[in-house]
Specification:
The complex is a heterodimer of chains A (62) and B (189). By secondary structure, chain A is mostly helical. Chain A has one domain. Chain A is 81% helix and 0% strand. Chain B is α+β, with helices and mostly antiparallel strands and 189 residues long. Chain B has a single domain, classed as Beta Polymerase, domain 2. Chain B is 49% helix and 13% strand. Chain B has nine helices and five strands, in the order H-H-E-H-E-H-E-H-E-E-H-H-H-H. In chain B, a hairpin with a 6-residue loop joins strand 4 and strand 5. The termini of chain B are far apart. Classes of the chains: A mainly alpha (62), B alpha+beta (189). At the A-B interface, helix 1 and helix 2 of A face helix 8 of B.
């Protein structure tokens, strides 16, 4: 049985295939929100005790 | 409120600004992997953009690094171009650039490391459906890497997405040839 997640991916891909510009436009707020929220979080974390060290660990920076 | 950014795709703007400096320094490049699927409407998050550049000398890198850090970018691994080149690029490891005072997205930039990367660079292409002016590795190459080398659920989903978008145009024998080269160069041990 094909997994449900892959079925959803395929359904969305067929939607994109027929409406590529529309899909790209629909995705923009999603992409922007993900990046903006992550950056807000990292900035808050950086201000906490050992926050900068934690970020280095999360991002595997030596 | 920054309306300029919120109306535009942050990833596209990030790549546009980075690639502008790459091109100004006359460095051959391709964007590969996750962003290829995302730029075709694949609905998933990402923290990094993967970029392969041709093999360059320290002098070329030094000039590029100076230019990129004069703009809005900084390298997460440090400021010393000598160390960045020797410890990372020359060792086939990625350098990670972000916008100053920002944590994501990251541009993961590495140099071509074998004949397979050279082939990808030689076959670089602009992909009309993305509506973007950047150079990408071919769709067949991206599918082959995702199915033969990376293989995570996310990669399999990316590959499925691209296979549906390009169903009528895909060259299966090209995909199989790249998979053969992946086995030869990347899975030889």
């Amino acid at each position: 049985m094909k997994n449900e997640r892959l079925e959803h991916v395929e359904k969305w891909a067929f939607h994109c295939k027929n409406n590529i510009k529309e899909c790209q436009k629909e995705l923009t707020p999603f992409i922007n929100a993900q990046i903006e929220n992550a950056n807000k979080f990292y900035k808050k974390l950086a201000k906490t005790k050992n926050g900068k060290e934690k970020i280095k660990k999360i991002k595997r920076i030596k | 409120m920054n309306r300029f950014v919120s109306d535009k795709n942050i990833l596209n703007e990030f790549i546009k600004d980075f690639v502008k400096v790459i091109e100004k320094n006359k460095i051959n490049y391709i964007i590969v992997s996750g962003f290829v699927a995302i730029s075709h409407g694949r609905s998933r998050g990402t923290e990094d953009i993967d970029l392969i550049i041709e093999r360059i000398s320290f002098e070329q890198f030094n000039k590029f690094h100076k230019n990129i850090t004069k703009t809005d970018f900084e390298c997460l691994q440090g400021k010393n171009p000598d160390r960045l080149f020797t410890d990372y690029l020359k060792e086939n490891l990625s350098l990670r650039y972000v916008r100053k005072n920002s944590f994501i997205p990251e541009m993961e930039m590495k140099m071509s490391k074998d004949a397979l990367d050279e082939k990808q660079l030689n076959e670089k292409t602009k992909l009309k459906l993305t509506g973007l002016p950047f150079y990408f590795s071919t769709i067949e190459t991206n599918i082959a890497f995702k199915e033969e080398l990376f293989k995570s659920p996310k990669d399999i989903e990316d590959s499925r997405h691209l296979r549906i978008i390009y169903a009528e145009e895909l060259n299966e024998s090209k995909i199989n040839e790249i998979k053969r080269l992946i086995r030869k160069y990347r899975l030889k041990d």
